[in-house]
Amino acid sequence: MVMRLHVWDTPGHDRFDSLMWHHGTAQAAIVVYDITNQRTFEKAKMWVKTLQKSPRFRRRHIFIALAGNKADLVSRREVKYEDAQSYADDNNLDLFMEVSAQTGENVENLFLTALTELTDVKILHLSHNNLTELPTRANKLTNLTMLILNHNKLTQLPESVVELIHLICLYVDNNQLSSLPASMKRLKNLQELDLRNNKLKRICIEDISDLKRLTKLSVEGNPLTLEVIRSLLELRAKNPGRINIDVAGEH
Fold first, then answer.
1. Which of 55, 169, 170, 242 could share a disulfide with 192, CB 3.0–4.6 Å?
2. Which 8-state DSSP code applies to residue 14?
3. Residue from 165, 161, 228, 217 nearest 194 by CA
4. pLDDT at 76
5. TM spans, by residue (predicted)?
6. Across residues 197-207, what is the average pLDDT?
7. Across residues 94-103, what is the average pLDDT?
């Protein structure tokens, strides 16, 4: 699936207001104001109101996030965090967050959270992002078939992943995983699972055995115990031709 992302940077000038009508096919909108400028907050409210009054918005819900920029300039703050949060709550906005375009604080989290609202996404590629956790709404991506999380800083695979029951491919290599969710066996459609180069010492063989459609499991580069390695080799031997298991230390 190809997703086209348009980010309009209109510095609050009235001549840009006509761009609002480009939201006809939008599934998400991030309305930004400057925490050091009260006028921009009032302008953001206008944009939110216009979005919510749109006939297109009434026909189908558009995810609306309110973002306060310049969070690195708190000493010059004119818009209180509490006031913006209260406005977002009172107007049923989907998300409120303060960010900093200067330092990058929360910017990635803002976009990832908005992205996970697009439930028709089938492939989500988040590699090389230094992620330490997944966006809280990731479990809403119910149609996801491929999740690519390699080369991040995940220490645990969130339980929300096992709710993505349509997953076919899950790539989590080159992270810092020390354990897997207890209910991995719920991923009944999983065919490929890449866990290379993590910190796994143990893997529940029963859970792997329950993944009847699994054809490829990669675990090399983990400090697995000899007991686990032996069990994985036995599992492969019992299922010749069905499952390919790359086991660390087998040579």
1. 169
2. G
3. 217
4. 96
5. none
6. 93
7. 92
DSSP secondary structure string for all residues of 58-78? HHS--EEEEEEE-TT-GGG--
**What distance in Å separates the CA atoms of residue 174 and residue 150, rounded to the nearest whole number?**
6
Beta carbons within 10 angstroms of residue 242's beta carbon: 11
Mean pLDDT of 137-161: 85
pLDDT band at 35 (very low <50, low <70, confident <90, very high): very high
First-last CA distance in the chain: 40
H/E run at residue 110: helix 107-115
**Residue 11, burial from CB neighbour count under 10 angstroms (0-12, 13-18, 19+):** exposed
Percent helix, strand, coil in the chain, to 5, is 35, 15, 50
CA-CA-CA-CA torsion sign (182, 187, 191, 196): negative
CA–CA distance, 143 with 146 (Å, rounded to integer): 9
Six-digit token pair at 232? 């994985």
**The pTM is what?**
0.62
Q: What single string gives the DSSP state of each residue in 18-67?
A: GGGGGGGG-SEEEEEEETT-HHHHHHHHHHHHHHHHSHHHHHS--EEEEE
Q: How many residues does the chain have?
A: 251
Tell me the residue ranges of DSSP E strands in the chain: 28-34, 63-69, 95-98, 123-125, 146-148, 169-171, 192-194, 216-218, 244-246
